[in-house]
């Protein structure tokens, strides 16, 4: 019984951490508008995505964290400008956290060609 309780407790902690992460990806912490990343951001975010084996983010738009100098970004990736995938990226430790689309208030604007 104690062994199962530990698993349940560990699962609840993990779910709480994921829920908290998703709640952080809001307009207050990552203010609008979406923008194209600069060359340094493309390189740093690209390295983090590659390390985490995230595919489908050849091009992306970013919203930078309000925490100055944190290197944290909300990114939106799309291959077709219709379907978006979202990630929270911390370039300092190359941590990438997938987010659900309902945690992001507005998708990036499609790029005009």
Coarse shape? globular
Query: Might you state the CATH topology name?
Result: Nuclear Transport Factor 2, Chain: A
How are the strands ordered across the major sheet? 1-2-3-4
Counted by DSSP, the helix tally is 2
Measure the end-to-end span: 61 Å
Biggest sheet layout? 4 strands, antiparallel
Low-confidence blocks of residues? 7-22
Radius of gyration: 16 Å
Total domain units? 1
Please provide a written account of the structure.
The protein has 113 residues and is α+β, with helices and mostly antiparallel strands. The chain has a single domain, classed as Roll (Nuclear Transport Factor 2, Chain: A). The protein is built from two helices and four strands. It has helices at residues 2-24, 39-51, and strands spanning 60-64, 72-77, 85-90, 95-99. The chain has a four-stranded antiparallel beta sheet, with helices on one face. The termini are far apart.
Keywords:
single chain; about 110 residues; alpha+beta; Nuclear Transport Factor 2, Chain: A; 2 helices
Short overview:
This protein is of the alpha+beta class and 113 residues long.
List the helices and strands and how they pair.
Layout: H1 2-24, H2 39-51, E1 60-64, E2 72-77, E3 85-90, E4 95-99
Antiparallel strand pairs: 1-2, 2-3, 3-4
């Amino acid at each position: 019984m104690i062994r199962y309780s530990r698993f349940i407790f560990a699962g609840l902690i993990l779910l709480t951490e994921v829920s908290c992460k998703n709640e952080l990806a809001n307009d207050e912490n990552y203010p609008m508008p979406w923008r194209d990343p600069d060359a340094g951001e493309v390189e740093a975010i690209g390295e983090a995505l590659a390390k985490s084996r995230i595919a489908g983010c050849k091009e992306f738009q970013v919203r930078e964290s309000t925490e100055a100098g944190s290197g944290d970004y909300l990114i939106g990736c799309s291959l077709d400008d219709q379907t978006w995938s979202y990630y929270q990226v911390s370039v300092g430790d190359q941590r990438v956290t997938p987010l659900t689309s309902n945690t992001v208030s507005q998708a990036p604007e499609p790029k005009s060609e």
